[in-house]
Structure formats: structure tokens, C-alpha cells
UniProtKB/TrEMBL annotation, chain C:
It comes from marine metagenome. The chain crosses the membrane at residues 6-29, 41-64, 70-90, 97-115, 149-171, 201-220, 226-245, 252-274, 286-307. This is ABC transporter permease. Coiled coil: none annotated. It is a multi-pass membrane protein.
Length: 378, 510, 313
């Protein structure tokens, strides 16, 4: 590769700078959108018009913003769970399952506060506190099982968490077909009592207070990881288990905590979905969210603020895709393609950092000592 | 006479470093040619280029007078060139035979393996050259010396006529090294050519016919070994007068700071690695633990800080039994530890220098019941450290992994020293460091010793042990073979102990 | 019906036959994954590749009516999709778990989109032309062994044959030795003159062919239809089978049989009026995988270079 007459020269060490990162991210998004637009064509949809409509609908109208925030909320929770778990070195992939578990726990508590339920109506604040705790702990224990297997027995959390997703699926399927089923044929629970439904916060939209909780959680996660000793230990355990061990940090315990917190956050995604959107537990709740949230976290570079922005972006895309399906018949699953391509392109573009564009060779000007070197950072 | 191998004007850059700066080298057939230089001199880079693991930016290679464009190890192997690295390139779960034949694929040969036939050839080859080894043994069960023999067999099996060895004695005892030299001499007598990379002057004098000295990427000089001497070579290697002896100003040692009593420790595979070690270290003294890497030193050091469970025995520091306290409490008991692997164990490469300075001691820089980190305190501490220990660059937010070996070691060592420990355990302190950094680290250790710190020095570099220690203990297969005062130390005796002879069994011991 | 019937021959035969049948696709995928992992690559994207193979074989068979072309199409698509995966894993050297997970999402999106785009939104699932079951003459008439082993889809026979082919290639050929070397100690393999990247690319593409063939197996050999969740984690179970089978094709076959048995139990026990909720039995294979991967059953010694990208510099 040394003496080839190519305008792409290989560097020895990758160039790292924030300007390159932003350039690459933008390029990746554009490329993914271009690829996605290919999928619109068979439906006679003009890609440019489609995208601008999507932006307008998702972010341009009040209603749209409301829907975007609704969809973003569970993504943010899953993304935060991903941040906490993955940065601790715990590659948890079981958020699909924690959403279901959190949703099931929330519905169960909510139904119990029905006037005819075992607990009966509770003061609002008490109910919210209770449902939050139960949901979080349920998800925490659910993921914690995998955490213990990894932390204490060295089990492989990647496959374990993926398997647990299916177990959760069957568990919820069982609950809504059996013990918690509402009268009737549909696999779903009865609707939760009015008193348990989350407040709408933006008049004219269905946006619920879950988004506020999500944003608050984002701040908490940032604070814990950046400013506390717990966060320091988690991060060191994730970056270098051997250095962590040297520094007196018990990596196994760190993993278990990562699992608990990650699972708890994932469960909150399920909680807000039932208390704010669906108002009951049903089959197929939150399908895909558990993975899109991970992808959003990756797009957000595993930082709180990045996750929030990426989640809102992805949520906006999903809202737009729903509309496109209704209006033009383009299957909404096209959005998964775009969401995944964005991050795949970003990952792939990492190798661009190893190259430097040599303009003089590009224009065939090999004579003379002057070489115009343009870095890929422009 | 046409040289067997000739390298002309080899130039190789790695980003802004010129690893090989217009290097010329010529090696004659049947000679043992030493390539001498410090870490980073460019010796390995040059040989990697000759072997096809790397590609030159400029220059030519001539093998037996023919221009040769070597781009991959396959090209080199086809030309009869073979290379043995410092870390052995052997696959542990494979047998000796599998290791020797893997990758061998002559034109037109069957795609099927014939391991039995290969095993027979290997056995014959090993007997022919005095390289005794069992072709059916799995490499993971072999000793280091046996592994090296397998590496040599690999080369001979591929009809290598030129053998390049990169620091081959790094993991051998002095006796094993002699055994290797005998094999090399025999090979050279049988029409093989040997290039031998080393930084050890006595090896050059011992075995080579000619020596090329490299420094800072340049080939400084090529000399006939019999017409030079260690001092001259050292000067060329380093570029200035080298002090062979740091003035230790022998001090009397004080109270017993560390007492290890009958320690037994297992390693990660459950093997009984440390078998009944008893030692003591006093304030104001450096106790050097000599021994070839892998004889239990690491496990011993880790057990002292309770980073590894102790099967049996006691550790007493300043009269306090610390055998079972948690590793974070060790530091408050006055112990500090600089591990052998500064990049993977002693620091977190992707974390800033500042945050690395609190590793192992977070609670000193916290508030609110040890929950919240005090950024200001951390920064002040880090600033003090980089000032005092001259860490460059002075950038606290830089990822620690971007520091050079020497500067990173200053951070790790500085961090431990700044806690003013009464006991400092240091493992392989100057491994991988250049001359300047090595000198700095050793001076720091002596300074600490003069301040009254007890230092437990573990090093596989005998020369380092001799340069720094007041007393020397030798470990072999988890047991202490003997402890002697440094002024009584004789290299041959230590070498024998490193190879398993107990002090009391040494010839001449009274 | 009671406990005695449980042990009658009829139940056992049905159960074992179903076990062998259900083990087929996962085993095929696992065999491919062995070539990934022995080379040092953990390919989580196998789930997505199976999905690609399932859709391709369904569409071709449904639209053209020829199942064999469907199989061919699936294999081609599998190799191409894994070429992309291989590029990400080996040349770009991105994190293998991350790439795999995102790839699965991509596969879900693409297959779901394509299925709906081609078929529109149909109410009833459409059936594709399938490959018939093959009763091996004479042998399939044997009592017990006949129905259990010799009355299966041709896919199964191919898969069993591939078990032996894999074992031969991995342990008796130079290619196999080179591949295993690459997964244990890539630097050593490199210095021995082996092209590490090329070996790994080949491994990943082999697994692409196998995984997508497994998808075709599911559609054209077993179910006859396509739906979004047709793979349902079988790719991940294949990952577990590889580990359970200690990266050995023969042991993997046994492991796959165990998983198939768990899967089959759900079908067989439903005959009986046991009060076990069907979901419990449906989740048995997943529970088994969890048990296998939990670490409670001891640690498997994996290829030493697994998950570590190789950088020549």
C-alpha cells in the first residue's frame, strides 16, 4: 500500500479529534438516510419530501413533538441502562425483557390499587413512589440474575441476557392469557385505574410525565458516573478489570450492581409505557425498543446527553415512519434499517481515521515537492 | 565474499518516529552476528522488516546477493529466513508437531494433514541438532527452555538457513542460556547463519563473531567481537559514558517492616505456586528478589497486597498482622505496590492521568461519606505528582495510555510513593524502559530507601538486582533458595540458585 | 391419560423423532458458527443471517415455485450478508458484539420491510413450496429407528453429513489447523505465514452459508411460511450449542439434540392433559441455554483469541 498511486494515504495512528467525530457522525446519518430512501422508492414516495415531512411531523407540530417525546422516553431509559451496564463492562442485552418485567410489575401494582384491589386507592405520590420502586427492583432483580451468573460464576452475559428476553416474553404471555387476563378473548390485562395514569404534561398532546423522569434519570446517571466513587469504580471495572482488581475494586460486585441498575432503568421503560401509553399489559409490549434503545445509546457514545439526543432523534424517525406507513403504505420496519445503518456506518467510518486525503495525488500532480495534504477532518 | 544477508539504506517511520534511519547491515554466512542496542533502538523493527512482518519505506534487501522483495513472513520463509520472537509464537493447546507444521503448505501438496509422518521427521531433526523434545507433547505443558527448542525446530523444519533470535535469553536462567549458546554454535558450524538481538553486553562478548550496534534507529557501527570490549560497546549503545555502578552508599538497615512467614499461595490455575516463603524486609533497605519470571514472584507480590488469596502463612507489617485484611486497607497499613504490567494492571489506559493518580486510594479524595469525588483535591494531587516526578507531557486530562513507558511508570511509581508507605513492593520496575527512564526509576527507589522506606524489589534483570539491592533473595519454583548480602553476591552462584540449587548446596558454601 | 402412557413407546418415538427434527436448523447454524469462533470471531449476527436466509428462500420459493432455487438464493444471500459482517469484524475491527446486535436489527428491518413490500399486507400467512420429507427406503421401515432417524427432511440428512464434513475439515486438513491456529494465537499464525484476515473471512462466510441455509431449512423444510419472529432466538441458541459442544462438531450435534429434545417436549406433552402452562414448555430450550451458559456448569476453555480483533501493527 506504500507506493500505490492512490489519493488515500494510510496513516500510522488514527486521527482523533471532535471535529472528525462530528463530521463522521453527520456523514453516517446522511448515508443511512440515503440508503433508507432507496426503500421508499418502490412505494412511489419521493425521499426528500418524505424526510422533510417526517421532520415536520415529528418536530414541527405540537402533537408531533408530543408523540416524539412519548416514543423517546422508553428509549432514553434503555439507553441509560445501557450506559450504566456497558460502561461497567457488563454487556447486557436483555432490555427487551426488563421492559416487559417492569411493565408487568407496574400493571400489577396499579391493578392492586383499584378500588376492588388488595391495596385499594392510594394517595398519588405514594402510588408513584411504590410503583417506581417495585418496577425498578423487579427489573433490577431480573437483570441481577444474569449479573450474578456473570459476577460470581463467570457466565456469558451476552447469550444469557438474550435468552432471558425470551423467558420474559413467555412470562408476560402467560400472565396476560391467564392469571391477569381481563374478561374477554384478548391477551391483555384489564385497564389500569384512572388514578394510576401518568399526567399529561403538554396540553394538546399525549406526552406524559415519564419524559421528565427520564430526563431526571439522565442527570442522575451522569452525576453518578462522573462524580461519585461508585461511578469511578464502575468505570474502572469496565475499562480494565485487572487495574480495577489492583486498585482494590471487586469486579464481580461491580458487575452485579451494573446489572441491577441497568435492569432497573430498563424496567422503568416498561413502567412508563404502561402507565403513560398503553394503560394495560399486553403481548408484544415495547417490541424492539429494548434493542433500538441500545443502538441509540451507541449513537450517543454512551454518554447521558448523547443518549437523550439520539433517543429523541430515533423517536422522531419512528413517528415519521408510522405516518408514512399510514399514508403511503411504506412498512414502518424501514425505520429499523435506517436506525441500524446510522450506527453501522459510524462504526465502519472509524477506519477513515486511518486515512489522509492527499489532494495533489488526486489531481495527478506528482511533480514537485509540494503536496497539499488535506486531513479527513475538513 | 558476498554477504549472506545485506540490508541497504533501510528506512522505516512510525508516525513521527524514525524507527530505522537509513540502516545498513551485512551478515556473513556461518557467522553469529549480534544486533546490540537499547529498547527502542530499532533492532526488532529492522528484523521484522527482514522477516516480512513489516515493510520498509525505503531500502533494499539482498539475500545471497539477490535482490529480494520480502513482504510477508511466507516470502521470508521461502528464502530460508526464520525468526524467533521474545514472546514465543507457539499455540499452547496444540502439540509440538502441530505447532511445527501449521501454515506449511508447499505447492501441490495434499490439503490433508499427516501428523504422524511429521512427528517422525521432527524427532529425527531434534536428535540431529541436540534439541530434545517430545513431538506429541502439548506446548502448554512444556518448560520455557523446551518451548524455545520447539521454536528453533520450527525454523529448521522449514529449512531455515538464517535464524533470527530476538532477546532469546530473556526468560532463561544463566545455565539454560549456556545450553542455547551451545546449540547456536553447533548450528553456525553447520552452515547456518544466526542474527542475535540483545541488549546484554556479556552475551555479545560470549557468543558473537561480529556485532552491529544500533541507537535511535541508526546503525552506529559494526565491529568484530574479538576486537572490542563491553565498555566500548556500551558507549556506542548509549552514546555517552555509562556508569556501571550507581553509588548505593550502603546503609545500616533498621527495624523489620515486613515479615513474611511461611507463605503458601496458589496461582490462577490452582497450582501451588508459592511454597512456604519466609522473608523479612527492614526499613531503609532494598531486598531484591531474583529469579526467572514465572517462579512465583508475581503471585507472592499479589498475595502481599491480598490481591490473591493466601492459602497458609502470615504477613506482618509494622508488627500488625495484615494477612487477611482487604486490599484497600493495605494501603492504610502503609503498603504500596507497583505491579509489573504498568499498562494493564498499574493504570487504566483510557482514563485520564489525573484519575489514574487516585487509583487504589479513592477514599482519600472524597467527601459526603466517601461517596462523592472531590475534583479539586484530585487535581491538586495530580498536579503535585506530575511536578514532583517530572511526568511529560504535563497534561492531566491526557489518557494515561498515551504516555510513554517511562512517563507512565513515573505516574504509577509516583502515586505509590506519594502515599509515603513504609513498605514499597516493586515488580520489574524498569522493564521496557529506555536508559533515561530506567536510571530515573532506580534513583527514585534509592531515594526512597534512603528515606527509610523498606523496599521489596522483584526483578528478572539480575543486573538490576545487583545494582540496587542491599540483600538478595533468590526464588525458584516458589521456594527461596537462599538470601545473601549483596556485597557477597557472585553472579555464578546466583545463577545456580535461580536454576534450583539451594544456597547450602552450592559448591564452596560454608 | 396418565404417567404410564408417558413411557410407552409411542410417546418416546414421537418425542425422539421430533427432537431430531427440531435439532436440525439449530445444529446447522451452530456448525457454521463453529467456523466463526474457532477463527476467533464471536458472530452474534447469526440470528440476522438466518432471518435473511429464511426470507430469501421463502420469497423465491413462493414467487417462482421452486424450492431448490430458494435454497440457492438463500446461500448466496447468506454469504453476501456475512461478507459485510466479516468486513466489520475483521477489517474495520469494530466491537463484535455491538456489530452483531445492530446487524440483527438491520436484518429484522430489511426482512420485515421486504416481506410486506412484496406480499402487501395479507391477512393469512402464505405458504411456500416446500421440500418434502424423505423416507429412506428400507431403513425408514425399521421399528423405532425408522421414524426417529430415517424419515426426515433432506435438510436433516445434509446437516448430519455436514457434521462429519466439518469434523474432517477441522481436524484432518491443513485448512482446519490453520483456522484453529488463527483463533488461538493469531500473531503466532501470522509469523508462521498464515493470512489471518483471509482465514477469518473464510470462516465467517462459511457460517453465512450455513446460517442462511438454516433459515431455508426452517421455512422450506419445516414451517412453510414466513413471519417476522420466525427465528425466535434460534441463532442465539446455536451460539450456546457451540459453547456447550466445546467447539467440536460432533459434540455440538449431541448438544443440539438435547436442545431439540427440550423443544420437542412442548409438542409431545401437549397431548397429555397436564396442567403445565404451554409457555413453560415453550421456554424450556431457553432455560436450558441459560443453565448451560450460567457458569454453574464450569467454565469452557474457549479459543484464546475469541472476540479479540487482530491488528498487524
Amino acid at each position: 500500500m506504500m507506493s500505490k498511486a492512490s489519493f488515500l494515504e494510510r496513516r500510522q495512528t488514527p486521527k482523533e479529534s471532535s471535529s472528525v467525530t462530528i463530521f463522521i457522525t453527520a456523514l453516517a446519518i446522511i448515508l443511512a438516510l440515503l440508503f433508507g430512501s432507496l426503500l421508499f422508492l418502490p412505494f412511489g414516495v419521493d425521499p426528500f419530501k418524505a424526510y422533510s415531512t417526517m421532520v415536520e411531523l415529528s418536530f414541527g407540530t405540537l402533537r408531533g413533538i408530543g408523540y416524539t417525546l412519548i416514543k423517546a422516553t422508553p428509549l432514553i431509559f434503555v439507553g441509560l441502562g445501557t450506559i450504566f451496564a456497558w460502561r461497567s463492562g457488563f454487556f447486557y442485552l436483555g432490555f427487551e425483557g426488563t421492559i416487559l418485567i417492569g411493565a408487568a410489575a407496574a400493571v400489577w401494582i396499579a391493578l392492586l390499587t383499584d378500588p376492588e384491589g388488595a391495596i385499594g386507592p392510594l394517595p398519588r405520590l405514594l402510588f408513584l413512589l411504590l410503583v417506581f420502586l417495585v418496577s425498578f427492583v423487579a427489573g433490577g432483580i431480573w437483570a441481577g440474575i444474569v449479573g450474578v451468573m456473570r459476577g460470581k460464576f463467570g457466565g456469558n452475559e451476552v447469550i444469557l441476557s438474550l435468552m432471558m428476553n425470551f423467558v420474559a416474553l413467555f412470562l408476560v404471555n402467560y400472565l396476560v392469557s391467564g392469571p391477569l387476563r381481563a374478561p374477554g378473548d384478548l391477551p391483555q390485562t384489564p385497564r389500569i385505574p384512572q388514578a394510576t395514569i401518568l399526567d399529561f404534561i403538554i396540553p394538546g398532546t399525549r406526552a406524559h410525565s415519564g419524559i421528565l423522569l427520564a430526563l431526571f434519570a439522565a442527570i442522575v446517571v451522569w452525576f453518578v458516573l462522573r462524580k461519585t466513587t461508585i461511578g469511578y469504580k464502575q468505570i474502572v471495572a469496565g475499562l480494565s478489570p485487572s487495574a480495577a482488581w489492583y486498585g482494590g475494586i471487586n469486579v464481580g460486585n461491580r458487575v452485579i450492581l451494573a446489572a441491577f441498575i441497568g435492569g432497573g432503568l430498563g424496567a422503568l421503560a416498561g413502567m412508563v409505557e404502561v402507565l403513560g401509553v398503553h394503560f394495560r399489559l399486553l403481548d408484544g409490549l415495547g417490541e424492539g425498543t429494548g434493542f433500538v434503545g441500545i443502538v441509540a445509546a451507541l449513537l450517543g457514545k454512551l454518554h447521558s446527553i448523547g443518549v437523550v439526543i439520539a433517543s429523541i432523534l430515533y423517536a422522531g424517525m419512528e413517528v415519521g415512519a408510522d405516518v408514512m406507513q399510514r399514508r403511503a403504505g411504506v412498512p414502518s420496519s424501514v425505520i429499523f434499517v435506517i436506525q441500524s445503518l446510522i450506527v453501522l456506518f459510524i462504526l465502519a467510518s472509524d477506519i477513515l481515521r486511518y486515512y489522509r486525503i492527499n489532494l495533489s495525488k488526486l489531481f495527478g500532480n506528482d511533480r514537485g515537492k509540494k503536496t497539499l495534504e488535506v486531513d479527513s477532518s475538513t | 565474499m558476498v554477504p549472506y544477508i545485506e540490508l541497504r539504506n533501510i528506512n522505516k517511520r512510525f508516525s513521527d518516529v524514525n524507527a530505522n534511519d537509513h540502516v545498513d547491515l551485512s551478515v556473513n554466512m556461518g557467522e553469529i552476528h549480534a544486533l546490540l542496542g537499547e529498547n527502542g533502538a530499532g533492532k526488532s523493527t529492522l528484523m521484522n522488516i527482514l522477516y516480512g512482518l513489516d515493510y520498509k519505506d525505503e531500502g533494499e534487501i539482498f539475500v545471497q546477493g539477490q535482490f529480494s522483495d520480502i513482504r510477508t513472513p511466507s516470502d521470508a520463509i521461502a528464502l530460508g529466513i526464520g525468526m524467533i520472537h521474545q514472546d514465543f509464537m507457539l499455540i499452547p493447546p496444540f502439540t509440538v508437531t502441530e505447532n511445527v507444521v501449521v501454515g506449511l503448505d508447499e505447492e501441490g501438496s495434499s490439503p490433508l494433514l499427516d501428523l504422524d509422518k511429521a512427528a517422525r521427521s521432527i524427532k529425527a531433526l531434534s536428535e540431529q541438532h541436540g534439541l530434545d523434545v517430545d513431538p506429541h507433547a502439548r506446548v502448554e505443558h512444556l518448560s520455557v527452555g523446551e518451548e524455545q527448542r520447539v521454536e528453533i525446530l520450527k525454523l529448521l523444519f522449514r529449512n531455515a538457513k538464517l535464524l533470527i533470535l530476538d532477546e532469546p535469553t530473556a526468560v532463561l536462567t544463566p545455565q539454560e542460556a549456556e545450553g542455547l549458546f551451545e546449540v547456536l554454535r553447533s548450528l553456525a558450524d553447520n552452515d547456518h547463519t544466526i542474527i542475535f538481538i540483545t541488549h546484554k553486553l556479556h552475551e555479545v562478548m560470549n557468543i558473537s563473531d561480529r556485532v552491529t550496534v544500533m541507537r535511535d534507529g541508526k546503525a552506529i557501527d559494526t565491529l568484530k567481537t574479538e576486537s572490542t570490549n563491553p565498555r566500548e560497546l556500551a558507549m556506542k549503545m548509549v552514546g555517552r559514558e555509562v556508569v556501571f555502578h550507581i553509588d548505593k552508599n550502603l546503609r545500616k538497615s533498621g527495624e523489620c517492616v515486613l515479615q513474611i512467614e511461611n507463605l503458601h499461595v496458589d496461582d490462577d490455575t490452582g497450582y501451588h505456586k508459592v511454597q512456604g516463603v519466609s522473608l523479612d524486609v527492614h526499613s531503609g533497605e532494598i531486598l531484591g528478589l531474583a529469579g526467572v519470571d514465572g517462579n512465583g514472584q508475581s503471585e507472592l507480590a499479589q498475595a502481599l497486597m491480598n490481591l490473591r488469596p493466601i492459602k497458609e502463612g502470615n504477613i506482618i507489617v509494622n508488627d500488625v498482622d495484615v494477612t487477611n485484611i482487604s486490599s484497600s486497607l493495605h494501603r492504610s497499613a502503609g503498603m504500596a505496590y507497583v505491579p509489573a504490567d504498568r499498562r494493564k494492571v498499574g493504570s487504566v489506559s483510557e482514563l485520564s492521568v489525573a484519575l489514574n493518580t487516585i487509583l487504589g486510594n479513592i477514599n482519600h479524595y472524597t467527601t459526603a461519606g466517601n461517596l462523592i469525588i472531590q475534583d479539586l483535591q484530585v487535581r491538586e494531587h495530580a498536579e503535585e505528582l506530575v511536578e514532583r516526578f517530572d511526568v511529560r507531557p504535563r497534561n492531566l486530562t491526557l489518557d494515561a495510555g498515551k504516555l510513554s513507558g517511562g512517563n507512565l511508570q513515573k505516574v504509577v511509581l509516583g502515586r505509590e510513593i506519594m502515599h509515603e508507605p513504609s513498605l514499597l513492593i516493586v515488580e520489574q520496575p524498569s522493564r521496557g524502559l529506555d536508559v533515561g527512564a530506567t536510571e530515573y526509576v532506580r534513583r527514585q527507589l534509592l531515594t526512597e530507601r534512603d528515606r527509610g522506606t523498606a523496599i521489596f524489589l522483584i526483578s528478572a534483570e539480575l543486573e538490576e538486582i545487583l545494582a540496587l539491592s542491599d540483600r538478595i533473595a533468590i526464588i525458584y519454583e516458589g521456594e527461596i533458595m537462599g538470601v545473601i548480602n549483596s556485597d557477597e553476591a557472585v553472579v555464578e552462584a546466583i545463577g545456580l540458585m535461580m536454576g534450583g540449587t539451594r544456597l547450602e548446596d552450592l559448591p564452596g558454601y560454608r | 391419560m396418565g404417567l404410564e402412557q408417558l413411557f410407552t413407546s409411542a410417546f418416546l418415538i414421537t418425542w425422539l423423532a421430533a427432537s431430531v427434527r427440531l435439532a436440525g436448523p439449530v445444529l446447522l447454524a451452530a456448525l457454521g458458527e463453529i467456523f466463526d469462533e474457532l477463527g476467533g470471531i464471536l458472530n452474534i449476527g447469526i440470528e440476522g443471517t438466518i432471518l435473511f436466509g429464511a426470507l430469501t428462500s421463502f420469497l423465491i420459493s413462493f414467487l417462482i415455485g421452486n424450492a431448490w432455487l430458494g435454497i440457492l438464493g438463500a446461500i448466496i444471500v447468506g454469504i453476501i450478508s456475512n461478507l459485510f459482517l466479516a468486513w466489520m469484524y475483521i477489517t474495520v475491527r469494530a466491537n463484535q458484539v455491538v456489530v452483531g446486535i445492530i446487524f440483527n436489527l438491520l436484518a429484522l428491518g430489511l426482512t420485515s420491510y421486504t416481506f410486506r413490500a412484496v406480499l402487501g399486507t395479507q391477512a393469512r400467512p402464505q405458504k411456500a413450496t416446500m421440500i418434502e420429507t424423505l423416507d429412506i427406503p428400507i431403513l425408514s421401515d425399521l421399528p423405532f429407528f425408522g421414524p426417529v432417524f430415517f424419515s426426515h427432511s433432506i435438510f436433516l440428512y445434509i446437516t448430519i453429513a455436514l457434521v462429519f464434513v466439518s469434523g474432517f475439515v477441522l481436524y484432518r486438513t491443513k485448512f482446519g489447523l490453520k483456522l484453529r491456529a488463527v483463533g488461538e494465537h493469531p500473531r503466532a499464525a501470522d509469523t508462521a505465514g498464515i493470512n489471518v484476515m483471509k482465514m477469518r473471512y473464510i470462516g465467517v462466510m462459511i457460517s453465512g452459508a450455513a446460517a442462511s441455509l438454516a433459515g431455508a431449512y426452517l421455512v422450506l423444510g419445516q414451517l412453510g411460511i414466513f413471519r417476522d419472529n420466525i427465528v425466535s432466538g434460534r441463532g442465539f441458541i446455536a451460539l450456546a450449542i457451540v459453547i456447550f459442544g466445546r467447539w467440536n462438531p460432533y459434540k455440538a450435534a449431541l448438544a443440539a439434540l438435547v436442545f431439540g429434545a427440550a423443544d420437542a417436549l412442548q409438542l409431545s406433552l401437549q397431548i397429555f392433559a397436564f396442567k403445565i402452562p404451554p409457555q413453560v414448555l415453550l421456554s424450556l430450550p431457553y432455560f436450558l441455554t441459560i443453565l448451560a451458559m450460567s457458569g454453574l456448569m464450569g467454565k469452557a476453555v474457549q479459543p484464546a483469541a475469541l472476540l479479540k480483533p487482530y491488528n498487524k501493527n
